[in-house]
Amino acid sequence: MDLAFQSAGLPLIFVSTRDMLKKEYVKSLLSEFLDLSD
């Protein structure tokens, strides 16, 4: 039971972390771009 939960939960954690990092990366790119365009 625990093993099944872990194997199912790990990809979810990985995907949500990856999405969060992607959003932070895009946000930092956008802020840099906006700073350059001022």
Automatic annotation (TrEMBL):
Name this polypeptide is given: Uncharacterized protein
Organism, as annotated: hydrothermal vent metagenome
